[in-house]
Every structure is written in structure tokens, then in C-alpha cells.
Design a protein that fits this description.
Helix content is 32%, strand content 24%. By secondary structure, it is an alpha+beta fold.
């Protein structure tokens, strides 16, 4: 066999692949039955009505897994736990414990069939976002009327809820109006009213804490479920850079006045990179400049540190070995 071609940093492709496998978590191998694999999380049912969720370093965009971002899974898991703790007075959540930087033990829930997106800014680049549709001339979006004269990335008159159906694996989420949630029989009127009230309260809390940390929370996604008694419960994740669009508040007005995009602390750099190469989610994702992944990882970590006021401490590597150690009581 001939010599391997060195990668850009001087390592061979084999050495680079081995390093990535040690430093990131792309797949999870645990001796548990009934695995459910999402775009970013793997989960398994546990006894006593609990579920194990492991957050990987996979990055999803356009309803596809695009690549691996170092530290991403740990940031998502620990930041979500931080937010769940600070919003438990608004609505119950599914957290039981956090036994590992990448893992969470949760209460089982009957997941509601919609994703609840709250938006405070006219922004976004995907088909479910409001900016492209607004610029195309639409003014009735998700059952809301938006006035003329709004500017790209500028504030909406008030935060709005823009629901979508939950797509099957490989499919795209479908936008629906707020009235269609009830009209199409997805949720009962009383439950949908409660979900909307809670979602706006969560967003207000998130916006206030984000502002204190020097961020603008432009929009976010919530998922809800019902516990065994039929009570509403916040599940999945919340206010993470995967489910939310955070912008640096410093210099935001100057950037917008200059016609520049906000400085994002989420996966928007990846979304924009995909848009630049014309990728819309169909077929295998393209290879992106490695700098995009490094930039994204750094921003995830900075976001965590500024929001929580804590120094990010990466968990032991390899992550797979650490998971087996920390989850031993659940694996046995």
C-alpha cells in the first residue's frame, strides 16, 4: 500500500480520522435494547418510567446530519440542564439526573405532535423561516399578520409562535398556522392554549437571561410532552445553540445598519455555508471548510460560558469509554 496523503495539518487521513473519533462522539454503543436514534440524540427506555438520552456531537441542518462538532454534545446537554433548572417554575420538565456530561436521565413522556418555534426577529434562511417568505411578499405567516416595513434581522412587533409538524426521519418539517393545530386535530384547544402561554413565558425568561449575558435570543424551538398523569412537560432540549438562534448584542445595530448579518452563536454559520454552495438538504451533504467546524465549536463553548458564568471543562476522552463508566448502574 502506498503512503497516505497528509492532511492539511500534517497528519495522514488515517491519523486525522482516529483523532476525530477520540475527540468527538458520532455514534453511541451501549448494551441496551430498543434504541431510538434522532439526528443528534440517541435514547433508550429504562425501568421505572425513565429514559436515557445521550447527546452526540452530530450537527443537523436542513433535516440532515451534516458533520461532527467537537464539544457540541456536552455543551448541548449541560446547557439544556442549566436552562431546565432555571425555568422549572414556569413548566415541569423531564430531567431526573445528569450522570455524564453527554447524558441525561429523563422521565418518559408522550410527545406532542408539533414543534413550537417562538420568533422575536425577522430572520432565518430555511423554508420554515419567516425572512425569505416576508421578502417574497408574504405578510400572513403561520396565522400572524406581519406589517410592511420590517427589516431583515430586525425585531418583530411582538414575539410570535410559528408551529410546525414533526417530520419523520429524512423528511422536512411542515409549517402550519396556529389555528390549524386545533383545526387539524393535532391538539385539544385547552392544551394548545396552555402550550402557547408556556412557550411565550419560557421565551421571555430566556430572552431576559440572554440579554444579561450580552446576547439576543432571536428565536428558539420547544418540544413538549405529557407525563403519565397527562400533565404538560417540557422535553428534549431548551435554549441551546442547536434549538435557538443567539446573536452577539454588542455591535448588532451597527452590523444591521451596514447590511451585514448578525454575529451568530449557533449553527447558523453552517446553514449559511450550505446555502452558499447551493445545498438545500437533498442528497449527501457537501464537505465544508474545516474552519467552519472550528468556528462553530468555539462559539458553542463561548455561548455556554457567557450564559452560565462557568468555565467549560471538557469531559474525559474517549467519550464512549467515559459513558460506559458513568452509566454503569443503568447499563447493568
Amino acid at each position: 500500500m502506498g503512503a497516505q496523503r497528509p492532511a492539511g495539518d500534517g497528519r495522514t487521513e488515517s491519523e486525522r480520522a482516529t483523532s476525530v473519533a477520540i475527540e468527538t462522539l458520532g455514534t453511541v454503543d451501549l448494551p441496551l435494547p430498543d434504541r431510538f436514534s434522532g439526528k443528534v440524540r440517541e435514547s433508550w427506555p429504562l425501568p421505572s418510567g425513565h429514559r436515557l438520552l445521550v447527546t452526540t456531537d452530530r450537527l443537523s441542518a436542513l433535516d440532515r446530519v451534516i458533520g461532527l462538532v467537537p464539544h457540541k454534545g456536552q455543551v448541548l446537554n449541560q446547557l439544556a440542564a442549566w436552562w431546565f433548572e432555571r425555568t422549572a417554575d414556569v413548566v415541569a420538565n423531564h430531567v431526573v439526573s445528569v450522570p455524564d456530561p453527554n447524558a441525561l436521565i429523563a422521565r418518559e413522556a408522550a410527545t406532542l405532535p408539533i414543534e413550537v418555534v417562538v420568533r422575536a426577529r425577522l430572520t432565518g434562511s430555511t423554508s420554515t423561516s419567516i425572512l425569505p417568505r416576508y421578502e417574497a411578499g408574504e405578510r400572513e405567516l403561520y396565522g400572524h399578520h406581519l406589517p410592511d416595513g420590517l427589516t431583515p434581522h430586525g425585531p418583530l412587533p411582538t414575539p410570535i409562535i410559528t408551529p410546525t409538524t414533526k417530520a419523520e426521519a429524512g423528511e422536512h418539517d411542515v409549517p402550519i398556522t396556529i389555528d390549524a393545530v386545533v383545526d387539524e386535530g393535532l391538539l385539544e384547544p385547552g392544551l394548545w392554549a396552555e402550550v402557547q402561554k408556556v412557550a411565550l413565558e419560557l421565551f421571555e425568561r430566556g430572552s431576559r437571561l440572554a440579554t444579561e449575558a450580552g446576547f439576543v435570543l432571536a428565536d428558539t424551538k420547544y418540544e413538549f410532552g405529557l407525563d403519565g398523569d397527562g400533565q404538560l412537560m417540557l422535553i428534549d432540549e431548551m435554549h441551546t445553540p442547536d434549538s435557538s438562534r443567539y446573536w452577539n448584542a454588542e455591535g448588532l445595530s451597527d452590523r444591521l445598519d451596514a447590511g451585514l448579518a448578525p454575529e451568530g452563536f449557533d449553527k447558523e454559520p453552517v446553514r449559511l455555508a450550505l446555502k452558499e454552495v447551493g445545498y438545500r438538504g437533498d442528497g449527501p451533504p457537501p464537505e465544508l471548510d474545516p474552519a467552519i467546524w472550528t468556528q462553530t465549536s468555539n462559539r458553542y463553548v463561548e455561548l455556554y460560558e457567557r450564559l452560565t458564568g462557568k468555565t467549560f471543562e471538557p469531559g474525559d476522552r474517549p467519550i464512549q469509554d467515559r459513558l460506559h463508566r458513568n452509566l454503569q448502574e443503568h447499563l447493568s
